[in-house]
Amino acid sequence: MTMPTPVSVNNSTANKQCVIVGHSIDAITTATVMVSLGNKVSLYADQQQLEHTLANYEFEHQQQALWQLYVSQNSIVISELPQQASAVFAEAQASLYWLFYSDLSVDWQQKNGEQPAWISDLNESQLSTQTPVILSGISTLGVFADLAEQCRRPWVYYVPFVFLQDGRAYPSMLSPKLWLMGEKTADSVDKVAMIQPLMAQAQNSYVSDIATIEFSRSAIMSMLATRVSFMNEWSRLADQQGVDILQVADIMGLDSRIGSSYLKAGWGFGGQTLPTEIEALHQTLQDTQVDHRLMQAVNVINDDQKELIFRKFWQYFDGAIEQKQVTVWGASYKSGSGRTSSAAIHPLLRLLWSYNITTYVYALEAQAELASLYPQQPLLKFISEPTQPLANSDALFVLSWPDTKRLPISAINEVVLPVFDAQNAFSREHIQSLVGGYQGIGRRKD
Predict the structure, then answer these.
(1) pLDDT for position 15
(2) Do the Cβ atoms of 339 and 363 come closer than 8 Å?
(3) What residues form DSSP beta bridges with 114?
(4) d(CA 91, CA 95)
(5) Which residues pair with 20 in a beta bridge?
(6) How far apart are CA 258 and CA 251, in angstroms?
(7) How many other CB atoms sit within 10 Å of the CB of residue 297?
(8) What is the average pLDDT across 319-348?
(9) 308-316 vs 345-354: helix axis angle to the nearest 10?
(10) What DSSP letter does each residue of 296-329 carry, written as one string?
(11) Are strands 380-382 and 96-100 parallel, antiparallel or unpaired?
């Protein structure tokens, strides 16, 4: 692997100390990026949770290599997250504190009067009020603006990780497509010199008050989720009308008012960010008693969509599916990731197993996570080659197939196997060349 060249930084910002609190992929990525910018990092984390994250993100090869290098060089020094936040805020030499809200322990979140314990400890610490504090994470709207107000210091900021891409975490933070930053004190971004290189390399950036950035984060993610559910809803109508939804998406993308992003129909959206964001918005709406029927519909469509490919399978065999054997290609929530959070693989497997169906799964990067989630399931069989069990299978499911990998059409045709394509990974040419049946999402073989 070729190591990336660290970003050039001014001597005034290099070799400074950054204290990071967190164990998530966001925190790990931030640590590696800050060292690449020429800084030292003290990382406070729940060690068990940190190891769990690193194990689940083994597919982030560049990230893993840099992490191991920087830890071995003591550029990243890892310490167990203490029970009292005051121990962390004692690092007076730090030039920046970066806290990942969802990773803070229960002890840190407990109330001391009206404030979370970590804010009380921060306010009572000897840490200079001129030391910037950055908060990151997803929560109900207004939480981060409120936390910033409770901190008795002017330089408090909020950075949502709308730019982080699974499978490309390190490069997507080093050169973010969109950098959003909320500031407690207006026009104070220059006080956070350590992150200026990231802002300079962003394709787009926007700085505003924290409440506005929180709202924008939620609006962006909700719009992406809405586009996915919109196309999935239309895919069902396409099925009825005999129209290929992929062609429709291509045409829609030509309209500059719409664009082409997030228009691919499939099994829905998963991962951590979008479902967490939708849940946080749902909680916000409950708290504020504001009606938001659109986002409720988005969630309902998405949940139902994850079972749609199974229903197509059931209908294809007229319900006679008991004790069959199937092959499943892909398990992650998107191609290139090893994460299966909120992915269609889980409802599909549960439904198949309820009919005593043996599942041969080609899980790519997600095999380790699936194996840990279903350690005692005799109907789950992992395969190292996608075509290995096709001859003994009654059907093929495609949930996640990388765009860069050629589909083995000839191997499918050798066994005349029906294909249930939940990702819409097959092109029109692929579909027409299949000998057996094909069912996609808003697509079918004529």
Answers:
(1) 66
(2) no
(3) none
(4) 9
(5) 43, 98
(6) 10
(7) 14
(8) 94
(9) 40
(10) HHHHHHHHHHTTHHHHHHHHHTTT--TT-EEEEE
(11) unpaired
| pLDDT (0 to 100) of residue 14 | 54
Give Cα 191 to chain centroid, integer Å: 30
Whole-angstrom distance, CA of residue 127 vs CA of residue 125? 5
Q: Where are the alpha helices (DSSP H) in 134-292?
A: 143-150, 169-174, 196-201, 210-241, 245-253, 273-288
Helices (H), 38-131: 47-56, 61-72, 106-109, 117-124
Please provide the distance, in angstroms rounded to a whole number, between the alpha carbons at the two ends of the chain. Answer: 45
Q: With contact defined as beta carbons under 8 Å apart, do 77 and 42 qualify?
A: yes
In the chain, how many H helices and how many E strands?
17, 16
Q: Above 70 in pLDDT, residue 17?
A: yes
> What DSSP string describes 128-143?
-TTS-EEEE---STTH
- At 80, phi and psi to the nearest 5? -65, 135
Evaluate whether 318 touches 37 at the Cβ level (below 8 Å). no
Six token digits for residue 18: 């950054």
Share of the chain above pLDDT 70, in %: 96
Alpha-carbon distance of 365 to 369, in angstroms, equals 9
Angle at 239 between CA 237 and CA 241, to 5 degrees: 70
CA distance 11 to 14: 5
| Cβ(151)–Cβ(175) below 8 Å | no
Q: How crowded is the C-beta side of 299, counted as CA atoms within 13 Å?
A: 14
What is each CA distance from 131 to 20, 146, 378, in whole angstroms? 13, 19, 55
Q: What angle do CA 283, 288, 292 make, to 5 degrees?
A: 70
Residues 21, 99 contacting (CB under 8 angstroms): yes
pTM for this model (two decimals): 0.89
276 three-class SS: helix
Give residue for tokens 């075509």.
Answer: 387
Which residue type is seen at 413? N
Q: What is the spatial order of strands in the sheet that 395-398 belongs to?
A: 380-382, 358-362, 325-329, 395-398, 419-421, 438-439
CA 369 from centroid of its chain's CA atoms: 15
Question: Could you read off the pLDDT of 227-245 as tens digits, one per residue?
Answer: 999 999 999 999 999 999 9
With contact defined as beta carbons under 8 Å apart, do 327 and 420 qualify?
Answer: no
Alpha carbon distance 347, 219 (integer Å): 28
- pLDDT tens-digit map of 340-393: 999 999 999 999 999 999 999 999 789 989 999 999 999 999 999 999 999 999
Report the alpha-carbon distance of residue 388 to residue 284 in Å, rounded.
48
Q: How far apart are CA 267 and CA 231, in angstroms?
A: 11
Q: What is the mean pLDDT of residues 51-73?
A: 92
